[in-house]
Amino acid sequence: MAVTEGELLWTPSAAFAARSQVAKFTNWLREERGLDFKDYEALRQWSVTEIEGFWAAVWDYFEIVSDAPPAQVLDRRVMPGAKWFQGARVNYAEHLLRYEAKAKPGEAAIHHLAENRPLAQLSWQELGRQVRVLATQLRAMGIKPGDRIVSYMPNVPETTVAMIATIAIGAVWSSAAPEFGTKTVTERFAQIEPSLIFVCDGYRFGGKDFARAAEVKQIVSALPTLKHVVWLPFLYPDKTEAPVEGAKSWASMLSGADVPRESFKYERVDCDHPIWVMFSSGTTGLPKAIVHGHVGVLVEHFKVMSFHLNLGPGSVMFFYSTTGWMMYNLVVSSLLTGAAAVQYDGSPVYPDLDLLWKMAAETGAATFGASPTFVQMMEKAKLKPGEKFDLSKLEAALLGGAPSTPETFKWFYDNVKADLWVTSQSGGTELCSGFVGASPTLPVHAGEIQARCLGMDVRAWSDDGKEVVDEVGELVCLKPFPSMPIFFWGDTDGKRYHEAYFDVFPGVWRHGDFIKINSRGGCYIYGRSDSTLNRFGVRIGTAEIYRAVEQVEEIANSLVVCCELEGGNFFMPLYLKLKPGFALDDALVKKITAKLRSDCSPRHVPDKMYVVAEIPYTLTGKKMEVPVRKILMGWPLEKAASRDAMMNPASIDWYIDFADTSKDYVKPAAPLGGKK
């Protein structure tokens, strides 16, 4: 496993590169546009210099279906506020199901497996049939374009059918995973005032059943705008009695007459019509309700799934996700290319550590995706999937959700397949895609993201707004891109939107990640530069934790951070200021843990809890999460924080001492932002 960062691990064969989707696009540009690019970097440079020309080419290459051609590609190169493809009227779901007309009878659109369901398939024809029936039922119930439909459902085909049907009629989709606690769900959904909710009775994870009937009742009662509840008996399929009076069963919603594909009418909508609401992690206040538009995610997803994941008809794509993460949306978007999606609901390592590899073999997956943490579990167990399973159809491994180490890359070549395109990609909920990613025409270097994505003018900037190369800086994007949020729900004056991305560098998107871009264009992501917690690929808002913890009567105040450590590990400590007369004993630890699991999710539970005398604050009253995290990551105080800007300067000393003396984690040998 000995490997060094940047070591060459794989080079695509000439045949693999030539048949790739990005090579086909490059050939099309030469033939149809008279544009000739010698390599990926030349193509990328053109895509971020002539952004209107690039996105117009994407529109034409994928033959986007619209009631009318767009009046222009981009109205102005301004962020925020840029408008894309004005005048066009499209529907994202129409394109998701477009391959149905070409698919062979019985050809799989979705492979699906759950801990309580065997591996099965849903054909393109059956997926289209169910979507059209459900969409017609939703219309008959009075659901109109712009109405919000929300979901508290597992990662199963029923959820995907509900999602596509919602989008097909111009309604707005939003999803939460069933492991989310009641408060986490209601704080999100209440913001968008939904008319209908899809719910399940529970889920199974790691061999244990988690009933959700009580949570469903609480969620429904907390959303007064709901007019309809649709109930899926997933965990207990024989118990069909719904916990909410008047709820319609999933079976009844699909009992309507079939609707022929030729006669179904998709609701084609304007460029700024919302397609879904995705929620931020809630670092400050309530989670931000991020709204994307049909046009923006349509062209972006065609681009990323084709050119950066190399999917097309006959491909099979899997990424381990839940319905509460943007990767669920991206897995569904693989249908745009004619590829089949693989959906799994349950523990990735139950009942056996190699469960997902068995599933990949049985579904013929061409792309296998998971987090670096999953790979670490495989490595510790000394698994060798390539020796045990037929992975002959596997072409790519996709790592996402957290920074990947050189050892993670090397593991695939040693234990899965020598000829494998191992990719790491990074983006976020805000764009429902990636800023930096992969190209099948480029070599793979250990621990390195191959390139910046097409159409994304990404740079690394120093704190004073200067571009740096081969140094760690802030990830910024200098030009607009189509899948930018069109707005935040409820943010009528755009203040929250502006503060989220544009308050540091006006007019320039600051994403909140540390990035290094080397001289050959390879990229390294070093975790969050803001206070959002990134723990094993799941982004967690500090405000969610504070709202839960500080309701515990013994707690006066709290502060939480998450550190990315060497070897792809994480350390998330929770610092607690207790009320007088209380101690952090086992009973209180269990009480806090139960509160976080109930109100938030198991992922919100910290690695360890500590009692502190004071929580450090800025003069403006903000908890100093970022400086504390930097100190724990090895930064000297003078680079992490200014005592002059602190409300209680002496409070930071405890954390400095903790970083130097704690035995609970291994501090990085050197900080990300400079020498110690």
Automatic annotation (TrEMBL):
It comes from Panacagrimonas perspica. Residues 100-477 form the AMP-dependent synthetase/ligase domain. The keyword Hydrolase does not apply. GO terms for biological process: lipid metabolic process. Residues 40-95 form the Acetyl-coenzyme A synthetase N-terminal domain. InterPro entries: Acac_CoA_synth, ACAS_N, AMP-bd_C_sf, AMP-binding_CS, AMP-dep_synth/lig_dom, ANL_N_sf. This is Acetoacetyl-CoA synthetase. Keywords: ATP-binding, Ligase, Nucleotide-binding. Gene3D superfamilies: 3.30.300.30, N-terminal domain of ligase-like. The keyword ATP-binding applies.
